[in-house]
Design a protein that fits this description.
The chain is mainly α. The protein has helices at 13-68, 77-145, 151-165.
């Protein structure tokens, strides 16, 4: 067997034993370093799992006290959370449908509002036009009363104005 510090001559058994022990010590030191690294990684994993456990326990407590309102087996928590998610999703889909219906209703009401505004504007214009016709009829009557126009002219102009009335 060859040793670390080989000499050209004969190697003593004692030297071979020392070389062998040095190799074993080096190998064991390497294994110990590797084991220490693994232990450190496992310790970090344990810390992470402990943090997740604390989060899980606090979530369990909140759900137990505020949602379910009675004690339940923590093993059922996944099923309860899934049930809550389904309920939430169903509520949101219902709200989305209601929202779409309300949007359609709002669109229809806006169109109706626009239509009513235009009708009001046309009625206001018609009222203004009628007020103008009434004012013209008064002036026409004053012209007749002061004998500036004849009864025939008055009747003709009055007929024209009354045709505008409708």
């Amino acid at each position: 067997m060859l040793g670390y510090s080989q000499k050209k001559g004969k190697v003593s058994e004692e030297q071979m034993a020392i070389d062998s022990l040095t190799k074993v010590t080096s190998m064991l030191t390497s294994q110990l370093d590797s084991t220490n690294k693994s232990a450190k990684a496992l310790s970090m994993d344990l810390d992470s799992v402990s943090a997740m456990l604390a989060d899980y326990q606090s979530m369990h407590t909140v759900i137990k006290e505020k949602v379910v309102k009675h004690d339940f087996d923590p093993a059922d928590m996944g099923m309860i959370i899934d049930s809550l998610k389904k309920s939430r999703d169903a509520t949101f889909s219902g709200l989305t449908a209601t929202s779409a219906a309300l949007t359609d209703t709002i669109t229809m009401l806006e169109k109706e509002n626009t239509s009513l505004k235009s009708k009001v504007a046309s009625l206001e214009a018609a009222d203004a036009n009628k007020e103008k016709i009434v004012a013209e009829l008064k002036q026409l009557k004053e012209l007749l009363d002061t004998n500036i126009i004849t009864q025939e002219e008055y009747d003709i102009r009055k007929t024209k104005l009354m045709a505008k009335w409708q």
